[in-house]
């Protein structure tokens, strides 16, 4: 019986870990991050978050990409020099003009020190039209959505096939 409980715990841990994003760790060097994110009519903005930068501010450049052609749409610096501090820069997404955005983060090569960051995250935020919250329906957001439903069905099916439901079956049969 302990093997079944351990197996279920491992299965639940795997399901939980595969549904969470894992941030990058301790990025440093000339080019610290380079990521392209796709945008569509649901995309509200593109964001850049940096945590625990060292030295001076980091440089960033944002490119809009349409039909394979890249156009610089924004650039500047970002810093979160305070310990355990995260700085966030948000850029409005124009999905009618661009298919995706590319964000490149680099250190300032003009000085003698080397900048780094514990974590650099680049992503998109989507419009939450029609509510949201825990019961967002099939819109893909919230706690109850198709992905989480599929994970729940798989966990239940595997636990049933592994025999973890035997005590329930015995009680119903008695």
Characterization of the model:
- By secondary structure, the chain is of the alpha+beta class.
- It contains 3 helices and 8 strands; from the N terminus they run αββββββββαα.
- The strands form 2 sheets. Strands 1-8-3-6 form a 4-stranded antiparallel beta sheet, with no helix packed on it. Strands 2-7-4-5 form a 4-stranded antiparallel beta sheet, with no helix packed on it.
Topology:
Blueprint: H1 2-18, E1 27-28, E2 31-38, E3 43-54, E4 58-66, E5 69-78, E6 86-92, E7 100-106, E8 116-126, H2 146-161, H3 166-173
Antiparallel strand pairs: 1-8, 2-7, 3-6, 3-8, 4-5, 4-7
What is the overall number of helices? 3
Counting DSSP E segments of at least 2 residues, the number of strands comes to 8
Q: What Rg is obtained from the alpha carbons, in whole angstroms?
A: 22 Å
What's the average pLDDT? Answer: 76
Largest pleated sheet: 4 strands, antiparallel
The first-to-last residue Cα distance is 20 Å
Described by its quaternary structure, the protein is single chain
Structural class: alpha+beta
The poorly predicted ranges are 16-29
Order of helices and strands: HEEEEEEEEHH
**β-strand amount:** 35-45%
Bulk shape: elongated
Helix content: 10-25%
As laid out across the biggest beta sheet, the strand order is 1-8-3-6
């Amino acid at each position: 019986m302990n093997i079944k409980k351990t197996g279920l715990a491992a299965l639940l841990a795997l399901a939980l870990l595969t549904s969470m994003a894992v941030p990058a760790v301790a990025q440093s060097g000339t080019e610290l991050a380079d990521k392209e994110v796709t945008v569509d009519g649901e995309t509200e903005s593109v964001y850049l978050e940096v945590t625990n930068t060292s030295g001076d501010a980091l440089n960033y450049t944002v490119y809009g990409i349409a039909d394979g052609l890249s156009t610089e749409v924004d650039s500047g610096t970002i810093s979160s020099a305070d310990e355990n501090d995260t700085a966030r820069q948000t850029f409005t997404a124009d999905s009618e003009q661009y298919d995706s955005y590319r964000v490149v983060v680099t250190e300032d090569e003009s000085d003698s020190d080397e900048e780094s960051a514990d974590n650099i995250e680049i992503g998109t935020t989507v419009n939450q039209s029609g509510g949201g919250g825990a019961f967002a329906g099939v819109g893909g957001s919230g706690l109850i959505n198709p992905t989480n439903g599929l994970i729940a069905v798989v966990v239940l099916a595997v636990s049933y096939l592994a025999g973890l439901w035997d005590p329930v079956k015995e009680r119903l049969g008695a």
